Model the fold of this input.
Amino acid sequence: MSNHEQWLAEEAAVRARLAPPGVATREQLSSRSGADFLAAISAGELPPPPIGATLDFIPISAEPGRVVFQGTPGPQHYNPSGAVHGGYAATLLDSAVGCAVHSMLPQGKGFTTLELKVNYIRAMTDQTGPVRAEGNVITVGGQVAVAEGRITDANGKLYAHATTTCLIFPIPPAK
Done:
């Protein structure tokens, strides 16, 4: 089985266990560590976020400090010049690096992206096949975290890479 076929088989297995897209409640978010929250999404106990359905990408794996998303760019992601819009790569990377940071947070802590820097290496098209955005934490402090990410295809070809700075904060209780 080629890497391309293996990636598509892994994606099908993950999709089979995911819940329908939705938004977790503040209680569901604040009552778990980041790693436990992401594990609950992967297990189908909590919904994956709607942006994944909008751009057709899913979480493939999550462990403390490392998260992988997969999607297959298609014509629905094209810009007017006939290539996949840069926002597709930026969204995959923002998801991967942000969730990598989230995977390191204790119960009761959340994050938001302060800055995302993306470098585009080559264009994606509907012929690219599945791509993976892998996010890895560089450092997590009390208020700020930094992570990096890369988008590659099943052959290891690099399409884009990014760094992010995230703000860490306590999740306020639900009202």
